[in-house]
Design a protein that fits this description.
The protein has 428 residues and is α+β, with helices and mostly antiparallel strands. The chain is built from twelve helices and 18 strands. It has an eight-stranded mixed β-sheet with strand order 10-11-12-13-15-16-18-17, sandwiched between helices. It has a four-stranded antiparallel β-sheet with strand order 3-4-2-5, with helices on one face. A four-stranded antiparallel β-sheet has the order 6-9-8-7, with helices on one face. The protein is elongated and about 75 Å long.
């Protein structure tokens, strides 16, 4: 199933809390008030129908219901749907001890409300019914979809959280490392090799040790979903660390050649060296507080488990810029750091445009950047994307959210305006 859902990846108590993390955490709290994680529970909560559907076409629905494991129960359900002129496009059955969970992809008349469908299903014997709108992506059969997710995971370790997100729908994914700061060891014995499934929670062994926990409070996981998630994690573990090695060589306006490529934990030493060359002001703009502990977070930021990182490298091999796309709550975070001597040359805009392109390909609905209100360079870069922006500012901390739902996948974002250093700050 392809839909926008909530993914949170964090390391629990494995590292101390830094001021920039507190800012991000506060922003996620604000987001949680603005965006609920539960799916639509009524027609008034669902997104508006397209014009062609309002004109009398049809609507796609995903529905899950539980029926008694006895002859005729499914037939009664199908008859009730047929009575409402609802077409069953696909059906998967998951036998359980207390009954059978049936998953449907339905095509219904556009004027038929979801509440009408669930009412008739209940009359026909269905229980614990869940329904929400679907789209054309759901027409892809389950085996094809799972194979596609496996391929993406095999090519790039950063795809595992996204693959789990697309496989399981709206859920919360947390990864706890094998060892916490208190010294507690979460070794292989913390979770059995086959994993644990407990209704709305599944726990799996993380490829590099520790535990991956997936929660979906609004809808219990089926054994089939658990088996598919476990297979993706096992595939990732067998293949080991991997990052695509493609790179682009670009020429800056003054003639210097730079290389933009994916970065990972292997770039930790070079990234740390760049930190040492950056001024306290530049690091403060990036980490929103004291910069003494900034280096210790680089290993986390460079891990493909928590997102994707782009590095800008000079002809001599020195890293002079980093861009991070972090899977962080309802809205993916973008963060930039460019060495002082290389600022105001368009490097930040180049990185931001590429990160937004990655977010589009990953199906993200928006991205946000957390910075200081005095960071006019970041403001200009975000404005230069040419996308709708929301601004929130409090006590000098600025959060800029760019909506991606108006941009086309594969399109090159427009960020020419970001190449000019603007002195204008937009406030609430």
């Amino acid at each position: 199933m392809t839909r926008n859902i909530s993914v949170v990846t964090r390391t629990g108590d494995a590292r101390p809390v830094h001021p920039w993390q507190l800012v991000s955490a506060a922003f996620r709290t604000w987001l949680s008030r603005r965006h609920g994680h539960a799916p639509p529970t009524s027609d008034t909560d669902a997104r508006p129908l397209p014009e062609e559907q309002r004109a009398g076409e049809s609507t796609l629905w995903r529905m899950r219901t539980t029926v008694k494991d006895e002859p005729g129960s499914l037939a009664a359900l199908c008859a009730a749907l047929a009575g409402q002129r609802v077409d069953i496009l696909s059906l998967q059955a998951h036998p359980l001890a207390e009954g059978t969970v049936d998953e449907f992809l339905l095509r219904a008349p556009a004027d038929l409300a979801g509440s009408d469908i669930t009412r008739d299903v209940a009359t026909a014997g269905g229980a614990d019914t869940w329904i929400e709108r679907a789209d054309a992506h759901d027409l892809v059969d389950a085996p094809t979809r799972v194979l596609g997710l496996a391929t993406r995971t095999a090519l790039d370790a950063a795809e595992l959280p996204l693959a789990l997100r697309q496989l399981l729908g709206r859920c919360t994914i947390r990864q706890l490392p094998a060892k916490s700061t208190s010294g507690t060891v979460r070794g292989p014995g913390a979770v059995p090799v086959e994993g644990v499934l407990e209704d709305t929670v599944m726990r799996l062994r993380a490829p590099e040790g520790g535990v991956i926990t997936v929660e979906r409070p609004y809808l219990p996981f089926t054994p089939t979903e658990f088996a598919r998630a476990r297979a993706l994690v096992e595939l990732d573990a067998r293949l080991g660390p991997r990052v695509p090695r493609s790179q682009d060589v670009l020429t800056l306006p003054e003639g210097n050649a730079i290389t933009v490529r994916r970065a990972d934990a292997g770039d930790l030493e070079a990234a740390t060296a760049m930190h040492e060359r950056c001024s306290a002001r530049t690091l403060g703009m990036r980490y929103h507080g004291p910069v003494g502990d900034a280096d210790r977070y680089l290993k986390h930021l460079l891990s493909p488990r928590f997102g994707r990182t782009l590095a800008v490298q000079t002809a001599s091999g020195r890293i002079v810029g980093l861009g991070h796309l972090l899977w962080d709550g309802d809205e993916t975070e973008v963060a930039l750091l460019v060495e002082d001597a290389w600022q105001r040359r368009g490097i930040g805009a180049e990185l931001l445009g590429r990160l937004v392109g990655m977010a589009l390909e990953a199906g993200c609905a928006s991205v946000y950047a957390v910075t200081q209100s005095s960071n006019t360079g970041m403001v200009a870069a975000m404005r230069g994307l040419g996308l709708p922006l929301d601004y929130q500012i409090e006590e000098g901390t600025l959060v800029i959210t760019a909506r991606l739902d108006t941009a086309a996948v594969g399109a090159q974002p427009s960020y020419e305006g970001a190449r000019e250093f603007s002195e204008e700050i937009v406030r609430d």
